[in-house]
Structure of phenylalanine--tRNA ligase:
Amino acid sequence: QPLRRVLLLGEGNFSFAASLCGATGTHVVATCYESEEEVYGWERAAESIQRLQERGAEIVFSVDCTRLKDYFLPEKRKFDCIYFNFPHCGRKAGVVKNRELLARFFCSSAEVLAEEGEVHVALCNGQGGTPVDQPRREWHNSWQIVAVAARAGFILSNVHPFKAETIDGYKCTGYRSQDKSFCVEGALNHIFTRSTPLPYFKPMICEIALESQKVSFHIPQVLVDKINRGFLGLNSNHPVQTVKEKLTAELSQAFPLQNTDCCLSPLHQGHLNEVCHSNLFWISLSPGQTPSTEEMSHGLANAVSFSHIDCCRDADKNGWVDAQEGCCISKQFYLQPSLLPCAQAIIQRGDFLLGTLHVLSGPVFRKCLIAPYSMPVFYEIVFVCAVKRGTENSCIQMLVNSIKTSIHSLHQTVSGFKLNISLQEAMSIETAELNDFAAFESQLSKIEYFICVEVDTSGSCEKGSCVGVIRTAHDELVSSELVVVFASLNLDLLAMLICGIADWRMLWTSDRRFLHQFPRGELRLFKSFSLYPPSYEHDISFWLPDGEQFDEIAFHTIARQVSGEMVVSIQLMDSFQHPETGQKSLCYRLTFQSCDKALSRQEVAEMQQRFRKEINQRLRVTLR
């Protein structure tokens, strides 16, 4: 087992380093900014240095924390932990100079830190600018440590009190660059780790088999990182898969089960009642023959779903031609926005057994406005059961009871809050109260009941708590003697509510620290590994083209695409109509924030510039 290498910076009298030295399996490299001659003139420094030397530590004087790689050979640059207690430019330096010191320090640390290493920075009370500081300074008067660290690719993963009194022999020193102590009451230790880099997604083409042919299509850019993730794979320990397994296991106690996932097609063609076209991800197939409407609606057995794609590859490395570049496309398709048409196709074909619960699950895709519970892609599970007319209420009750039991069972392993599960009649809920999932489901067909899961923290119902709907088949789908019950559940939203995951984007993170919290598929209360991420606001104003309706969903979708889902809020700030020309102008405020990655002000500014360019070209607005 290699020794854990620890680097300490700005040590002053070396009393902190001396307290750490000697820990089993740890090699300490203690440094200070001052020269050896200066340090030996400080109280207790000689004693601490002697103790370090006796225990095999390295001591380096005159080290500039902004040029760390200059002091260590390449083979000795990878430290597992870097400590910098109470950094300061010295004398009466203000917050701006100290922010810049931190920025340069973090950039330097990135060059000598091991891949999974940590950077510990202790600051006096109020300096950091996080909600943990009490009292909290105004943002402009703080050191803004989380935003500063983001510039070097670091995220704040933990913060806790710096308890100087518990550190054996430690005495803080260095007040205004002198051998004087300072107040550390309420000081905080900030622990930073590396962020996964911001993604860059190349255009991607998907090939799937339909009947005897292979067809291909361009993956919408906003979905490129969401395709073929395998959340519901056999060896997956993703919480979405755990929720699905528990649901089906519980329902198998009440119904005979038949899984039909292998028959699902990722594409759909045809009319979906009142669903707005702007909510759909439209697809052009190429280059082979376009499959028929009948083939698509029936969900062919050899169609390959997105979790089992034959081939995905970069669009710029193959010979396929986009439809907009001249390829002849005769029919338009869209990505499956719901599994309900697939479930209805089972009934239409007569491929069902009376009283058997057919289970369909997979990803569905919907363009939507940016909001905390609005997901452009999520995993849906649909249960379908045909029963004799007059027994449908009993079937619905059995379904709901089994769903409640499984959710309660899952939640028993997660502490910290209580979940309330209820069945509410659709007639009792106003449209404005529905979350995005429920509102879209309402467009597909009539709903009898909503399944709601509420986090019981304040006694009030959360807007995002509708996780499922129950409906019965239309008369034209079934015979006069039968009724078909459909139950649709949003697995992503269920997993979020059960595990206390506040941001849907976290379910799709590529950071391994997310899945490490759910070993062997065990559900636990999620603990974020990126605390108090900085947010940035940018306003954008533009004139609308004359005589055209503004497509707000397209506006939000472009924001999702150019930012890689870093836009968390879009607010309409102002609307103006020119009194003479009648032309209309809109002003929106975009808030950028990442839930799992370091996001700097410069990166956001570049996203905003791309966004301005894209809406100008694609929505034909005139920027102001």
